[in-house]
Design a protein that fits this description.
This protein is α/β, with parallel strands linked by helices. The chain has one domain: Response regulator (Rossmann fold, 3-Layer(aba) Sandwich), CATH 3.40.50. It is 43% helix and 19% strand. It has 5 helices and 5 strands, in the order βαβαβαβαβα. A 5-stranded parallel beta sheet has the order 2-1-3-4-5, with helices on both faces. Helix 4 links the parallel strand 4 and strand 5. Helix 2 packs parallel to helix 3. The radius of gyration is 14 Å and the shape is globular. The mean pLDDT is 94.
């Protein structure tokens, strides 16, 4: 599995890498512009990501704008439905407007910080990224 971790906070980035390293090859981006570039490069190389963990509040390009760009790129490449990348928004924002906005932009899951490993893995399992163990 390939995962793009998009997070402007270095501690959160390292934590997500630690949580995901047993399950995915992880690439990191520190803002939305880097994320969009990394996503485009992966599509052009025919090595798309399976999962994007995307922070909402970031400098330069926020998570909502980055996700809109990612979905546009997928559409331009004829990728959609179940073939589209799974996106988990990660944020400290827990108000209904932020949550609804994220889902309208096209995420599949929304986790409130601080992110717990068990919650992240449960969402990944719910999204069909791996089967339940045991």
């Amino acid at each position: 599995m390939r995962c793009l971790i998009v997070e402007d906070d270095a501690t959160c980035r390292r934590l997500l890498q630690l949580y995901l390293s047993d399950y995915a090859d992880c690439v990191v981006a520190s803002d939305g512009q880097e994320a969009v570039s990394a996503f485009a490069e992966a599509l052009d190389a025919a090595e798309p990501y399976d999962l994007v963990c995307l922070d909402v509040m970031m400098p330069r390009t926020d998570g909502h704008a980055a996700l809109a760009s990612i979905r546009r790129m997928e559409s331009d490449h004829g990728i959609g439905g179940l073939d589209a990348v799974k996106v988990i928004m990660t944020t400290a924002l827990d108000d209904s407007g932020s949550i609804l906005g994220a889902f309208r932009t096209g995420c599949e899951a929304y986790l409130i910080k601080p992110i717990r490993k068990d919650s992240l893995l449960e969402e990944m399992q719910n999204l069909g990224l791996f089967a339940a163990s045991g």
